[in-house]
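Anyone opening a protein record will find just a pair of labelled lines. A complete record is shown below as an example:
=====
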Amino acid sequence: MDQSQEETALIDTIPICHQFGFIHPERTVVNPSSHEQDVTIWLVEDNKHFRDTIFELINQSDEMRCPRSFSSCEEALEALEGDPPPEVILLDIGLPGMSGVEGVSKFKEISPSTHIIILTVYDDNQNVFNALCAGASGYLLKDAPPVQTVDAIKDVLAGGAPMNMHIARKVLDMFIGSVPQKKEYGLTEREKEILKLMVEGLTKKKIADKLFLSYHTVNTHLKNIYSKLQVNTRSGAVSKVFKERLL
């Protein structure tokens, strides 16, 4: 049997798969040369049915191929040590052994250019935050339509950060919550004016001259400012202004 006959025989042994059908996670493309320009995606997912579904979906999509899929981070990391890295890794969080969140940083250490999209059922703030901080480029929930996974791969390759609307809202809320609120120290408008001039480097005498106040009045205002800011020195007040953006 010549090579073309062998390839035909191999193809004949592969059942026709539907969107939620079965395809072997380690199946490779019969004619890899025809897919050299395709985006390479690896899949790390321990749920066999979901893994098979996404595996087939990607391989049925234009300009994409998923030559490898794994049930754990450890298996994928071992493969990544010897194989050319993929452009994208779809990664679950709740995996046996190493979690997907921990796996993100490990994958990025070996292949910094690989985009990692989290594909999971977990939508709690801690997992979202930890995964994105570790280097994930996107975060999707498994209850999204399967085609959204393909769209997410396209988005991340175009420089985007794909997320479900629910997750995007969480990220926005976390960002808003992480921004320190400007403290109110009860400074009067005159005290703020004097503090601003002091930050600009003016001496007490120059502040007094500029504001047409007596030296004693300026000194009294500065004592009140120090007390309200809970500092004892000029440098301490200036430092607090810059750190907390008081002005």
Q: What stands out?
A: Residues 137 and 182 are 31 Å apart (CA to CA). The chain has two domains: 17-29+36-178, 189-244. The chain is about 50% helix and 10% strand.
